[in-house]
Amino acid sequence: MTGCIRGISGSTVWVEGLKGLRLFERVRVGNAELTGEVVRLEGERAVVQVYEETTGLGINEPVKGTGSPLTVMLGPGILGAVFDGLQRPLEQLRAEMGPFISGTKEVSALDYKRSWEFHPLKSEGDELREGDAIGYVEEGAFRHLILAGASGIISWIREGSFSLGEPLARLGSGEDVYGLQEWPVRSPRPYRRKLSPSVPMITGQRVIDFFFPIPRGGTAVIPGGFGTGKTILEQTIAKFADVDIVVYVGCGERGNEMAELLEEFQTIKDPWRERRLIDRTVLVVNTSNMPVSAREASIYTAVTIGEYYRDMGYNVLLLADSVSRWAEALREISSSMEEMPGEEGYPTYLASRIFGFYERAGIVETLNGDVGSLTMILSVSPPGGDFTEPVTQASLRTAGVFLMLDTSLAHRRHFPAINWSQSYSLYQKELKKNFSEKVSSEWEDLHDRCRGLLQSEEELREIAEIVGKEGLRDEDRLLMEAVERIRTEFLCQNAYTEDAFSSPEKTLKIIKEIIRFFDDASEQIRKGILYEDILKA
Amino acid sequence: MRLAEYRYRTITSIGGPLVFLERVQSVRIGEMVKLITPDDKEMDAQVIEIKGETVLLEVFGSTQGLDLEKTEVIFTDSAKKAPLSEAVIGRVFNGSFKPIDGLPMFLPEKWVPITGRPINPVARERPSEFIETGFSVIDGLNTLVKGQKLPIFSCSGLPSKEVVAGILKNARLPGGAGRFVVVFSAVGLTFYEYAFYMELFNEMMTSFTAFVNMADEPTMERLLTPRFAITVAEYLAFEKGMDVLVIITDMTNYCDALREVSTAREELPGRRGYPAYMYSDLASLYERAGRIKGVEGSITMLPVVTMPEDDITHPVPDLTGYITEGQIVLSRELHQKGIFPPVDVLPSLSRLMQRGIGEGLTREDHRRVSNLLYSNYAKGRDLRRLEAIVGSEGLSEQDRKILAFTDTFEKEFVNQGIQRRGVIETLELGWDILRRVSLV
Ligand SMILES: Nc1ncnc2c1ncn2[C@@H]1O[C@H](COP(=O)(O)OP(=O)(O)OP(=O)(O)O)[C@@H](O)[C@H]1O
Ligand SMILES: [Mg+2]
After folding, report:
1. Element at A185 (helix H, strand E)
2. Would you tell me which residues 173-232 of chain B have a C-beta closer than 8 angstroms to some C-beta of chain A?
3. How many domains does chain B contain in total?
4. What's this model's pTM, rounded to 2 decimal places?
């Protein structure tokens, strides 16, 4: 069936004469066969979002349905790849069309020519249920499990080398099982049940692990104005986080940042394995100058990939920079479809879309009874640094960890510029216990002492602003000095130095030293020794 | 391809820069059209929306002289393109790429659409080569590198053009570099500023190309001017291997033009009436800066943004800061103290600095001295406020040292006038000031 274009505005195209279309079906638009998705059906008319640059698209050009929705290809070869928002492999595009992206080359996300070794875990005659692993492929350091998409009795199973187009097993019903599956990006992948997050994911950032810990399967948001350090924080966590797989989405941000990330990840070693970082990473990149509607799709492409590895029982971390650019893409699309706008022009369904996306994080019991997790850390870029705007607010309502970046800290080059009095982690109590058990029983106590000092210092600072520091009592001046050390030696962490990663043991050691310094000096003051003399010593 | 040149006379309405045309048979989005007024004036327009047989056009010149009955519309079947050739160097054009230097138009080697194509992120070379601007505040604390986009945030009445002029005169590329050329794009420039820049270009020995849209010229042309400039820059950089410095002044005028079209289209306004898609639109300009793997040239961008009401959270500087790799912020307070360049280092930032400095690039102690200067100055600025309340008796000795440093830093390090300083001299001066107030 072919329809034809009756109207074009931005990335939105009105199509007539295409019967039998389904909502969210993928369509090919115009003579250039641009990729589009049906977003509204009105009788004979359909509204289509085009995922590529529409300039040059003409009225009356043909539109064809494909019968299937927008999907992601899942299979071995994803790790280490760089995809655009529609999962087109960017290295391949570069090889085929040079340094600039143009046109609409159909390029397969995964390489069908590459040969893989299949190691079966099941035999002929075995019964298979959906989600069972029939075998695995070595993908770098990882066992890439091949999970069955259907149930039945195995009548044949392969062993040894294969390429992605070839079946790996056959069921009694005659159905083949492949090492490759397509999954609709907007549908969460199934699992048996969600578990409650209780194990910390170590980020290596002291202020996070110590004060605002993130559990495996949790969601953290990082809102902050421009230049407050969202990207550096996300990239640093991407390097060091204690997880198996990292999916990083550059959503509507800078090209140079992605070049930097890529170059570093290709050279730096994975801190937890004898491999390069890139070997545990998937990059999904749709920079600010790439098509807006593909930007909207990019985070779904990424999260589906994340869920796929979660289903193999891995701990996956998804970092997105920035959710605001995704929301803005949603707004641009909504407004070109002439939908009724809600707050600040965002569509009224903004919050529900945000919830729907954030809810795809979690620690789950997979279909085959294994446990896997998908943790999300998402940056938010509020206009004018004003946190009352809709994207920040909707994010706050669902995320368990809120890391508020503070412009005034950033301007002092206090990085990471996480405001320690306004940020929170809803999991803090539970995870604190966990750290106490795993790292040291002193963790909880030191945590509470440190918090107490920071609070007292805030009050003291107000007094000092009236009477001057010289007007304070010795013990108060000591407290201010201790907190200054907490700020500069403990809370600050320069991403460009060795200190970029701090193990929980190191974190504990630093804070313990500062608190001990404070206790010892307090003792001396009590004995009548002057503050100045203590500092000199 | 449409062969016959059909002339439509079916305009149904004209409002601001927008024209509605009916009963159009064949048309593409983004296609250029020619409008011919009854008195035979030609103007350019672009198709921005198609609904059935009704087409919405955005006119780039002034719409004066258009009418509903006699004006004719011709479709060209192609997008807006720029003529390219190395002969652009040394020439001055208006905002629509017509020569205004009295010389005839050059013979183009080719024509290329001005919207450009996105650089594939994996084809980008990470920018890392230091550009010496000659200003201590920039070279020492907010280092510029080749392929960076670093805007200057100014306020009305501050000497942003003198800062730009200083950079243009003094900038040195690493190792003398290959061919260096400036592409200058003036957007809504006053005559006074225009004269200033033209004089500067004549004085300078560097090659340049200028695209000039003056304050009294059509607003809509402002949407084209920077795109012509950047298209030329891409050609010179990525096809001819030159190092191109693109200066666009003033981006605030560009954004105002964008707002005007958006208002005329009755689009839902975003913050302060600017369209909701302004982020993406600005990114489509700024992101064209950079370097490409295996290609010699580079595009470095220095756009000037005037912050309305001195407000850095205003959408124009705000969205710019969200796209560019840092910003150089000028301060009214420093200007009033007579400091030139009046750069406030605290809100200023160069995000690509880390890669461009250090051993083999500038000097091995660069990072250390810049961190020291920065942190002491940040503390000093806080202390100034405290001192105003509690007096200097309330401060500790260390605090008083930092205050002394803060003053000297502004007076000597920031305030250098138009004298050029090499980066080594800058680093030495930094140490010298720190030593003088015994902070090191
Ligand atoms: N942990 C850190 N250590 C040292 N420097 C840092 C750190 N975090 C941020 N910075 C500095 O701050 C600059 C801005 O950080 P970053 O690019 O992450 O900001 P951002 O919040 O992502 O801004 P935008 O919203 O504009 O993308 C960096 O270029 C770097 O100079
Ligand atoms: Mg960022």
Report:
1. none
2. none
3. 3
4. 0.94
Name the phi and psi angles at B6, rounded to 5.
Answer: -85, 140
Residue A399, in any domain of the structure: yes
**Nearest bound ligand to the CA of residue B326:** 1
A280 domain residue, yes or no: yes
Final residue before a domain boundary, out of A51, A71, A91: A71
Chain A partners within 8 Å of B277 (Cβ): 10, 292, 328, 332
pLDDT in tens, chain B (440 residues): 455 578 889 999 998 889 999 998 889 998 999 999 888 888 889 999 999 889 999 998 778 888 888 899 999 888 889 999 999 999 999 999 999 999 999 999 999 999 999 999 999 999 989 999 999 999 999 999 999 999 999 999 999 999 999 998 888 886 665 688 999 999 999 999 999 998 998 888 778 999 999 999 888 899 999 999 999 999 999 999 999 999 999 999 999 999 998 888 888 888 889 998 999 999 999 999 999 999 999 999 999 999 999 999 999 999 999 999 999 999 999 999 999 999 999 999 999 998 889 988 899 999 999 999 999 999 999 999 888 888 888 788 889 999 999 999 999 999 999 899 999 999 999 999 999 998 88
CA separation, residue B414 to residues A456, B158, B166, B426, B430 (Å): 37, 15, 14, 10, 10
Q: What is the ipTM of this complex?
A: 0.92
- Are A274 and A339 in the same domain? yes
Co-location of A152 and A265 in the same domain: no
Nearest-CA distance from B241 to chain A in Å? 14
Same domain, B317 and B393: no
Contact flag B121-A285 (C-beta cutoff 8 Å): yes
Q: Which residues of A touch B120 (CB under 8 A)?
A: 90, 93-94, 99-101
CB contact under 8 A, A256 and B290: yes
Smallest CA separation from ligand 1 atom 11, residue? A229
CA of B279 to the centre of ligand 2 (A): 14
Q: Which amino acid is at A21?
A: L
User: What's the CA gap between A290 and A248, in Å, rounded?
Assistant: 17
Range of the domain at A27: 2-71
How far, in Å, CA of B409 to CA of B78, rounded?
Answer: 56
Angle, to 10 degrees, between the axis of helix B278-286 and the axis of helix B225-234?
30
Q: Which residues surround ligand 2, an ion (CB under 5 A)?
A: A 230-231
Neighbours of A93 (CB within 10 A): 23
